[in-house]
Every structure is written in C-alpha cells, then in structure tokens.
Amino acid sequence: VHPDRVPASALTPLLRRGDKPGFVVVDMPDVDDFAPAGVELPDSALYVVTGLDRGDRMANWSPEEALPALAGEGRTPLVLGEGIHWVLQQPAALERNHCFMTIGSRLRKANGTLDARTPAIWISNGTGRDGRERRDAPKVGWCWWGNRHTWLGFASGTGRGECNHR
C-alpha cells in the first residue's frame, strides 16, 4: 500500500516478532513526516517492489556511502513504509543482527535541508527507553546519516510497478 495512504505510525504496531508488537522509538514523534527523497513512487495506491534485498553486504557502511553504491548497482532504496510492508509480509526479512535502514525516506526541515536522521527497522534489545518488556520487538527508529552500524544493511529493490491484483 502506498506510503502516503497508511502512515508508518499506524503500520508499525502491526509488526510482530513472537508475541511482541512493533513500536516507534519515543524520540521519533515525527516518523510520519519522513517522505520519499530522491525516490519515485508509483501513483497507484497499490504497487509492488521487485528484487528486494536487505543489504547485508553493506553492513557497517553509512547511509551516505550506501546510497551512491545502490544507485551504481541500479537499485533503489526502500522508503520506510515499504520496509514495514516487507516485514509485515515476510517477517523473516528482519532478524537479529541483520536488520536494515530505509534511506529512501528522509525528513526535510523547514529551511529545505535534510534532517541528519534516516529511518531504520531493527529488533529491540529491551534497554534504555525501549523498556525490558519490548525486548525482541520490531522497532522503527533512526540512525544518523553519517554513522555506520555493523548490524544494519540498506533495504533496496530493483524497481517498483503496478500491482496486478484481483
């Protein structure tokens, strides 16, 4: 479903890992303001992303490094809503120590510049503000654009197109 139709804040609690529902980190109250940046989405309310890949080979890269590499491979980064839908449809796409950023979504500030955060989906360790009760729950959070994480790849696809549903 097109990310403009159902916001990330509404989709995230539908994620499940065991009996744990997904959640958005408390310091990302603006999660629904992250929008496609440099990514063309189909106009259709329903579409399909082909050639999905979690981007494990790029673990320990920064988003700043990964974006041009993906483009050079003819791949398109997923936006946050696409990443959430992927995990909803294929929960195995999210596994501990092999999670992903969705760098096709960025937040544009009032002055026109891009916020330094980029959305990501991973599994909570149940520490800090997450709370112990959320250990092993799917988590939508953010990482800094210039930072590297050994356990986060960069979700991407080979294309987007109309969904032939009946």
Architecture overview:
The chain has three helices and 13 strands; from the N terminus they run αβββββαβαβββββββ. It has a five-stranded mixed beta sheet, covered by helices on one side. The protein has helices at 8-11, 63-72, 80-89; strands at residues 16-17, 20-21, 23-24, 35-36, 47-50, 76-77, 99-101, 105-106, 117-123, 138-144, 152-154, 156-157, 159-162. It has 166 residues and is an alpha+beta fold. It has one domain (8-162). The chain starts with 7 loop residues before the first helix and ends with a strand.
How many β-strand stretches? 13
Give the termini separation: 15 Å
- Sketch the major β-sheet: 5 strands, mixed
Structure classification:
alpha+beta
Q: Provide the low-confidence segments as ranges.
A: none
The number of helical elements comes to 3
- SSE arrangement, N to C: HEEEEEHEHEEEEEEE
List the helices and strands and how they pair.
Elements: H1 8-11, E1 16-17, E2 20-21, E3 23-24, E4 35-36, E5 47-50, H2 63-72, E6 76-77, H3 80-89, E7 99-101, E8 105-106, E9 117-123, E10 138-144, E11 152-154, E12 156-157, E13 159-162
Parallel strand pairs: 3-10, 7-11
Antiparallel strand pairs: 1-2, 4-8, 5-13, 6-12, 7-9, 9-10
